[in-house]
Amino acid sequence: MQEPEEKKIALELLETEQAYVNRLHLLDQVFYTELMKEAKTGKTVPEEVVKMIFSNISSIYQFHAEFFLPELRKRMEDWNRNPRIGDVIQKLAPFLKMYGEYMKNFNKAVELITAWSEKSPPFQELIADIQKRKVCANLTLQHHMLEPVQRIPRYELLLKDYVRKLPPQSPDRGDAEKALEMIFMVAKHSNAAIAEMERLQNLWVVYQRLGLEDDMVDPSNELIKEGAIQKISTRNNSTSEKYLFLFNNMLLYCVPKVIQVGAEFQVHLRMDVEGMKVRELKDTEFPHTFLVSGKQRTLELQARSGDEMNAWIK
Questions:
Q1: Which burial class, exposed, middle or buried, applies to 162 when counting CB atoms under 10 A from its CB (0-12, 13-18, 19+)?
Q2: Rounded (5°) CA angle 312-191-53
Q3: For residue 216, is it within any domain?
Q4: Rounded to two decimals, what is the model's pTM?
Q5: 241-272 b/e (C-beta count within 10 Å ≥ 16 → b)
Q6: Which of 163, 184, 210 delimits the end of a domain?
Q7: Co-location of 155 and 61 in the same domain
Q8: CB neighbours (10 Å) of residue 124?
Q9: Considering its fold, how many domains does the chain have in total?
Q10: Could you tell me the CATH number of the domain that includes residue 150?
Q11: Would I find Plastid among this entry's keywords (predicted)?
């Protein structure tokens, strides 16, 4: 007899979960454990660095090895009597939020591996030695570390497929649909965590370029646009090069520093966005000019092109 489609997918979930747990075992029990042991001798790399590279991989490994995989296995052995996996996945879904931390840390982890491999030959040698083992299948540590990042999208795809293949009257339909919704929310949560981390990193870089002025460093600010601009001086009919940073709440009017020690720009003026008015100026002598007037003062600015002017006005 032909196996029903939904059972094939459930079995694929179990098989990929088993392979995934093996990969997590390699990351946590082999790479992390051995690198940590070496770090404790003080010869390779600080313990803190190893912890930062592997983030919360131990919790992820324990959860899958000790809870999710055994539950799935039990369920598949009992499939003929009780053909369902939706309830098990519902129990799993909230714990997948743990992945947010791992994914937020992923780029930093890869950078640390590269940086310390250059700085510490013994660290590089130990990684190379583990990578040569059969269990690594000729793949690098970085490659294995990608696996948790790809796991949640994999659950989502398998579960979508499972729900599609379920017969309309299946006892698992309600649970499986709810489980899919929960997995979808977790995937969204992880993506949001990564996006937020990138936003904060970019914001921090901008603050450094501006010299980290205390009253300006605010994590809730959002950089909307930045770029060079010409300031028109009506007094002597000339222009000079300036630089603008537009945030959600303020416009920073800056001068590029000649000697770039520390900050790249000096903030000449801060204008509140609240109450600000912007309009195009029809000036034959200075094309692509627009006027920005705020509570603090009014600036006459010239962009390089019509498109650029429109982008700023917008």
A1: buried
A2: 110
A3: no
A4: 0.69
A5: ebbbbbbeebbbbbeeeeeeeebebebeebbe
A6: 210
A7: yes
A8: 17
A9: 2
A10: 1.20.900.10
A11: no
| CA angle, residues 204, 247, 210, in degrees to nearest 5 | 45
Last residue of a domain, one of 186, 210, 234: 210
Walk along the chain (314 residues) and give the pLDDT tens digit of each residue.
678 899 999 999 999 999 999 999 999 999 999 999 999 998 889 999 999 999 999 999 999 999 999 999 999 999 999 999 999 999 999 999 899 889 889 989 999 999 999 999 999 999 999 999 999 999 999 999 999 989 999 999 999 999 999 998 899 999 999 999 999 998 888 888 778 878 887 888 888 888 876 566 677 788 889 989 888 887 777 888 889 999 988 899 888 887 766 778 888 888 888 988 998 888 778 888 998 988 878 888 888 888 998 999 89
Same domain, 245 and 159: no
Chain centroid, CA 167 distance in Å: 38
- Quickly count: other Cβ atoms within 10 Å of residue 123's Cβ: 21
- b/e map of 87-102 (b: 16 or more CB within 10 Å)? bbbbebbeebebbbeb
Please indicate, yes or no, if residue 285 is contained in any of the structural domains: yes
- Give the count of alpha carbons within 13 A of 35, CB side only: 31
- Asked if residue 235 and residue 181 are part of one domain, the reply reads no
Same domain? 95 vs 172: yes
The answer to whether residues 199 and 262 belong to one domain is no
| Domain assignment of residue 52, given as a range | 5-210
Report CA-CA distances (Å) from 301 to 28, 311, 314.
57, 13, 14
Instruction: Based on the fold, state whether residues 166 and 273 are members of the same structural domain.
Output: no
